[in-house]
From TrEMBL:
It is found in: Cell membrane. One of its GO terms (biological process) is cellular response to starvation. Residues 5-144, 160-284, 295-422 form the CstA N-terminal domain. One of its GO terms (cellular component) is plasma membrane. This is Carbon starvation protein CstA. InterPro entries: CstA, CstA_N. Keywords: Cell membrane, Membrane, Transmembrane, Transmembrane helix. It comes from the Bacteria. The chain crosses the membrane at residues 80-104, 125-143, 149-172, 184-207, 227-245, 265-290, 310-329, 357-378, 384-401, 408-427, 447-465. Belongs to the peptide transporter carbon starvation (CstA) (TC 2.A.114) family. Pfam families: CstA. Its main location: membrane. It is a multi-pass membrane protein.
């Protein structure tokens, strides 16, 4: 229990101390006019109070990510706490804040345009493709899971439910941001926070917390399975997630002042980290031990069981919200971000409603077709592409900081680490190149993957250093 409480305190201190440091490094100032004021169009560029922007950003990046991911990551025991805390403070929150603020500085540009500006045109094209694929995969993941759950609860045919959710997605994607998202997201954001707080206090005061394993050198995964890089892919949204880089530009177009950026971007990620900690702890302790968790069933079943057991009927209602409403609210913003990314890439104005439908309709047709691919396959590829996008975004942010004479190490260090993660994972994971090694012992394959990851990371660092901006060309904003 003490490790869990200490981890929550560490995240809060991280926001206060390291968040303020990162903000100073970037140089947020109220002297600059934000895109929400300068480019107001009543559709995507709409001024919002920072509290509403925070709740929308929080729900955009969270959904069920910090819940389901944390439940899966809990299988590695208290190592999950370590990854959530360090990943969230030094990687995920930095990633979200820098991409969000770079978007603010560049007229609300999407992450692909930011990457293109600082890593080159080829990187931009790669990022456009990567972003769109990831966003469509997110949309598909968050169409299928709530439709399946609603089918089990109501008996309504899954295809009918898929159709209803897709129609809602289309409406939320093309309407002005303050008409649907701006009205209902803050409500769901508050509910998600209340759910996490209720579960956190419930497991402590109802005695479950005594089963939370403490962090020691001897209690990592009981089955002896490797932690790295799998844990860093399983827990993404609670530590670092490339999906967030696609979402931050939405609120970058709504901030009233730059100084609100730390609260909205860094703060939303820290809040998501706390949600992930709560659910990781609950999953570890509610069923007695890790073995009990393994036998409990799918993540959705675990969430439903814990919610009902800890919070009673209220918990049951919140569980429905968590596993149905929250993924839907992440899915619609995924498709909206895909629309904006494509529009930015081809310079297609999104003021006229017809133009929004021109991009949105083909996107939804592709998404609906992907709904017929097995969920497990979609999820595995989503996990790796998600963290790869985050890695590229961190390198772009590092290049921006270096080019402007700022402390680039706050982005370079997590970028180096994540380069090792995504490289080693794609080599040793089943959905990667593990088949190349045939029947070779998996632990040997993992070691090969880690060595390859370190080499690729080192080469990336050398390339970054080799292309450093000469002192005479350092830009001052």
């Amino acid at each position: 229990m003490f490790s869990f409480i200490g981890a929550v305190i560490a995240l809060i201190v991280g926001y206060v101390v390291y968040g303020a440091f990162v903000d100073r490094v970037f140089g947020s100032t109220d002297a600059k006019v934000t895109p929400a004021k300068r480019m107001a169009d009543g559709v995507d560029y709409v001024e919002m109070d920072w509290k509403k922007a925070f709740l929308i950003q929080f729900l955009n990046i969270a959904g069920t990510g910090p819940i389901f991911g944390a439940v899966a990551g809990a299988m590695w025991g208290p190592a999950a706490f370590i990854w959530i805390v360090f990943g969230c403070i030094f990687a995920g929150s930095v990633h979200d804040f820098l991409i969000g603020m770079l978007s603010v500085r560049q007229d609300g540009a999407s992450v692909s345009e930011i990457v293109g500006k600082y890593l080159g045109e080829n990187a931009r094209k790669l990022m456009v493709a990567f972003s769109i694929v990831l966003l469509v995969l997110v949309g598909v993941v968050f169409v299928k899971s709530p439709a399946d759950i609603l089918h089990n609860l109501t008996g309504i045919p899954t295809m009918v439910l898929l159709g209803i959710i897709i129609i809602y997605y289309l409406i939320a994607t093309v309407l002005p941001i303050d008409q649907v998202i701006g009205r209902i997201y803050p409500i769901f954001g508050v509910c998600l926070l209340i759910m996490a707080v209720g579960i956190g206090f419930g497991i402590i005061f109802q005695g479950y917390a005594v089963n939370i394993p403490e962090i020691t050198f001897h209690n990592f995964h009981p089955a002896g399975k490797s932690i790295f890089p799998y844990l860093c892919i399983s827990i993404a949204c609670g530590a670092i997630s490339g999906f967030h880089a696609t979402q931050s530009p939405m609120m970058a177009r709504c901030l009233r002042t730059e100084r609100e950026g730390r609260r909205v971007f860094y703060g939303a990620m820290i809040s998501e980290g706390i949600v992930a900690l709560v659910w990781a702890a609950a999953a570890m302790c509610y069923f007695g031990n890790i073995e009990g968790l393994a036998a409990a069933g799918s993540a959705a079943v675990v969430v439903d069981t814990i919610s009902r057991g800890v919070l009673g009927p209220v918990g049951g209602a919140l569980a429905i919200l968590g596993v149905v409403a929250c993924p839907i609210t992440s899915g619609d913003t995924a498709f909206r971000s895909a629309r904006l990314t494509i529009a930015d890439a081809i310079g297609y104005k999104q003021g006229p409603v017809k133009n929004r439908f021109v991009i949105a309709v083909p996107l939804f047709a592709i998404g609906l077709a992907l709904c017929f691919i097995p969920f497990a396959i979609i999820w595995r590829y989503f996990g790796w592409s998600n963290q790869t996008l985050a890695t590229i975004a961190l390198w772009a942010a590092a290049k921006y900081l270096e080019k402007h004479g700022k402390n680039f190490w706050i982005a370079v260090i997590p970028a180096l680490f994540m380069t090792v993660v995504v490289t080693s994972y794609i080599i040793c994971a089943p959905e990667g190149f593990a088949w190349v090694f045939g029947d070779m012992d998996i632990h040997v394959v993992e070691q090969i993957g880690i060595v390859a990851g370190i080499i690729v990371s080192a080469l990336s660092g050398l390339l970054f250093w080799k292309t450093k901006t000469p002192a005479a060309e350092i830009e001052v904003e």
